[in-house]
């Protein structure tokens, strides 16, 4: 059975003090949970502070982005070596907000995925269709291309996590139904199976993201191919994030 994962993407929220408070509460509220994986992705500025709170605990640290060089004259960028140094184990790559506001393209996302892996970190690779793409009936085409391009040339699938996040469901309060989400998750697993073989596909963790709350996670995690959640808004409150984690741990 695949391990579940619940990851909190705090986006551009929290000062260092706020991040410490939330991460302490999440650590406390989940200390009896010993299976699955809990991941926190605070902003860069709070990474080290959160690392100090969660080190030696069951919670792992993630960054929300990075640049695909080790170091150099890239003003404003942060390298995976620096992220590893702050205690990160994961990096979110290709989030739809980065694609939309910072014009990240599949080729750059692919460079990032490869760099994250070669640094010994694990990418959480985000894919998902927009509302108009879903209306046009091209969800699988779009998601399939995103997956293939993000993973182009990648052989080390063991350390990859994919997050399916329909763009229209992110931060909108709209949800994919469990069956809509399951259909895309199954499709992603199918594509991975075609390229890498069935056992790689069966071991791949695929998370759902988009307005996940303690109220809707139960039905989502009951789906066979949904292995957890990438949570935005609801991860900023320890109570709701802990509520999501508990529901997932109960069902898996
Ligand atoms: P949301 O964000 O849970 O606030 O919709 C999810 C995400 O962007 O990862």
Question: What's the SSE blueprint?
Answer:
Layout: E1 5-9, H1 16-29, E2 37-41, H2 47-54, E3 59-63, H3 80-85, E4 88-93, H4 96-101, H5 106-118, E5 122-127, H6 131-135, H7 139-150, E6 161-164, H8 178-196, H9 198-203, E7 205-209, H10 217-221, E8 228-231, H11 238-251
Parallel strand pairs: 1-2, 1-8, 2-3, 3-4, 4-5, 5-6, 6-7, 7-8
The protein binds 2-phosphoglycolic acid (PGA).
Overview of this structure, please?
- Helix content is 43%, strand content 16%.
- α3 links the parallel β3 and β4.
- It has one domain: Aldolase class I (TIM Barrel, Alpha-Beta Barrel).
- α1 runs parallel beside α2.
- The protein has an eight-stranded parallel beta barrel, surrounded by five helices.
- The chain has 252 residues and is α/β, with parallel strands linked by helices.
- The site of 2-phosphoglycolic acid has 13 residues, from β8.
Protein traits:
single chain; 8-stranded parallel barrel; TIM Barrel; binds 2-phosphoglycolic acid; 252 residues; 43% helix; alpha/beta; 16% strand
Report on the biggest sheet.
Answer: 8 strands, parallel, barrel
Category by helix and strand content: alpha/beta
| Helix count from the secondary structure assignment | 11
Task: Classify the oligomer.
Answer: single chain
Biggest sheet, spatial arrangement of strands: 1-2-3-4-5-6-7-8
- Per CATH, the class reads Alpha Beta
How much helical structure, as a percent, in the residues? 40-55%
CATH level 4 superfamily? Aldolase class I
CA-atom Rg in angstroms: 17 Å
Beta-strand portion reads 15-25%
Mean pLDDT: 97
């Amino acid at each position: 059975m695949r391990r579940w994962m619940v990851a909190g993407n705090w986006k551009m929220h929290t000062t260092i003090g706020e991040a410490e408070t939330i991460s302490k509460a999440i650590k406390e509220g989940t200390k009896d949970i010993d299976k699955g994986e809990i991941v926190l992705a605070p902003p860069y500025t709070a990474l080290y502070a959160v690392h100090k709170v969660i080190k030696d605990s069951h919670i792992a640290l993630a960054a929300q982005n990075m640049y695909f060089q080790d170091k150099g004259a890239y003003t404003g960028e942060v390298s995976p070596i620096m992220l590893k140094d702050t205690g990160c184990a994961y990096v979110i790559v290709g989030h739809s907000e980065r694609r939309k506001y910072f014009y990240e393209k599949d080729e750059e996302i692919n460079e990032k995925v490869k760099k994250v892996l070669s640094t010994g970190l694990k990418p959480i690779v985000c894919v998902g269709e927009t509302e108009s793409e879903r209306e046009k009936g091209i969800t699988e085409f779009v998601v399939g291309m995103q997956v293939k391009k993000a993973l182009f040339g990648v052989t080390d699938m063991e350390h990859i996590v994919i997050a399916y996040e329909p763009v229209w469901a992110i931060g909108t309060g709209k949800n994919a139904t469990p069956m809509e989400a399951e259909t895309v998750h199954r499709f992603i697993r199918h594509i991975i199976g075609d390229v890498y073989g069935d056992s790689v596909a069966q071991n791949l963790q695929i998370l759902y993201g988009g307005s996940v709350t303690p109220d809707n996670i139960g039905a989502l995690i009951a789906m066979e191919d949904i292995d957890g959640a990438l949570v935005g808004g609801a991860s900023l409150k320890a109570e709701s994030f802990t509520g999501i984690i508990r529901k997932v741990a109960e069902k898996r």
